[in-house]
Amino acid sequence: MTRYDTDVLVVGSGPAGGSAALLLATYGVRTVLATRYGWMAHTPRAHITNQRTMEVLRDLGIEDQALAQGTPPELMGDTVLCTSLVGEEIGRIASWGTADRSATEYAAASPCHLIDLPQTYLEPILAANAAARGAKLRLDTEFLDFAQDDDGVTARLLDRVRGDEFTLRARYLIGADGARSRVAEQAGLPIDGQSGKAGSMNITFTADLSEHVAHRPSVLYWVMRPGAHLGGIGMGLVRMVRPWNEWLLTWGYDIAQPPPGVSAEEAARIVRDLVGDPDLPVEITSTSLWTVNHSYATQYSSGRVFCAGDAVHRHPPSNGLGSNTSVQDAYNLAWKLAMVVRGEAGEGLLDSYSAERAPVGKQIVDRANLSRDQFGPIFAALGIDGDTDSDAIAAGLAACTAATEDGALRRKRLQAAIELKNYEFNAHGVEMDQRYVSNAVLPDGVEPAADRDPELYHRPTTTPGAKLPHVWLVGPDGRRVSTLDTVGRGRWTVLTGLTGGAWREAAAKAGADLGLDLRVVTIGSPEARDSYGDWARISGIEENGCLLVRPDGYIAWRHAAAGTGLLEALRRLLAR
Ligand code: FDA
Description:
The chain is of the alpha+beta class. 33% of the residues lie in helices and 24% in strands.
């Protein structure tokens, strides 16, 4: 009999690896998390934490920890386009659902609101909870290579404290080792697209900028400065890390040239230039270079090896999809591995990971890159093309504010160009509506057509392959309970109504037959009353119908009214 040191070895403690280890530990799976350095991310990097990721953290019982550390939406959304922080404003984009017209849409879509949670704060939350729930954290441990056979994976690791190598045998390996993933490379995962499209530098710094920003609170201040076209989008970015004294500045460099060394003096010069204050007291805390990529794996797994996060999708920060997509990869994969490790599902279930997540990866890589390109119309409206100097920027703005027919035309163009940026800063559909087609979903062929732009607007539906919509119910103590709170926590759920007694019986039988801890929720019962009537409006089934919901909150199967077939559906879905 094969001996395993652990059931799952996770390589990397970024958003993908940290959440994979936490999820697996929460589901009771023996997990080792091996990561190269002595602690988590040391620079803020990804930060926008969207509603869907907050729902994952809520399911894990750590939403409150994230909220305690994050910056709330009211301090996030006034995205500013300007010539410097002290200079003229070109325009603003009310972002992340904070505009009056989108705030209700975001609020109605989820029990969670989005926050700004830099990686330096998110990663320790994930790792600490993973360790507290039983995952073994191996810091200073570098993954070298792996070999897999029919029964498991043997990984060779380097203990960077002692300097010696050791091996670890696991049933499964998750490569969450970032954009230069050795695991993905060794697994031979096919990567499409383009790497190294443009060069960017991150400069982190501390400086009190409250007088320039507190009256227009935002995460992002885009600054049109000469030189910003080089490797950039034509604007530098001053990004809030903590309001209003900790910052990350992004500036481009020419990727055709050797990577530049950025001294603290040069970094301070760039900071002062974008702020527009040559005497600003500033402390540079780090500088680093990164490249803009447009690449994605078309297959996320090979045998017993699965990759997640930047290992399989690499894209610019536009839309704030980096760590969100990584966490959501892990959320898709972890419950499947847990069920297979426990013997509750056949290995065929694992095929659905790649089938479901690879299309999402391609979609978000394409979206982020398109959003990056969609700054172009702003420059066109101002009559600015390519590199330019401060005078040309000032002339462009003057033409755009002139009380002339030409000025009016330019203003119209600028307005349309700013409107287009909703696809980056208010892409609610992109953030919330990832749809799955795989062997872990049984479609019923009923999918109402989208009545609004599916990238901009969330569309709640119970069509199999979609996420269970959120509506408020009322729980036994009279408090509101989200539909999302009635499912998840690693378990499958049957949702039915008061007259769905046959489904309750079928669920009890299917659970017993399959040895499955199948939860049954009766909407309308004291535990989940549809007091507002929203469930009846949105459920897509009759009261005596049934929704079968996966542990990740996705609808796997739907039966519109009374009927049969639950056990057979579960057998197919679980590859039993
Ligand atoms: P991530 O790269 O976060 O983590 C990989 C992990 O694997 C790390 O813990 C690493 O130490 C470990 N590892 C790697 N090789 C290993 C090995 N051989 N053995 C053991 N451990 C190994 N996104 C965004 O939305 N907004 C932003 O502003 C930015 N900014 C930004 C700046 C810079 C400089 C970078 C590099 C990236 C960004 N990103 C970003 C992207 C964002 O950080 C990224 O999408 C997520 O961190 C991806 O999370 P992962 O967990 O997949 O990889």
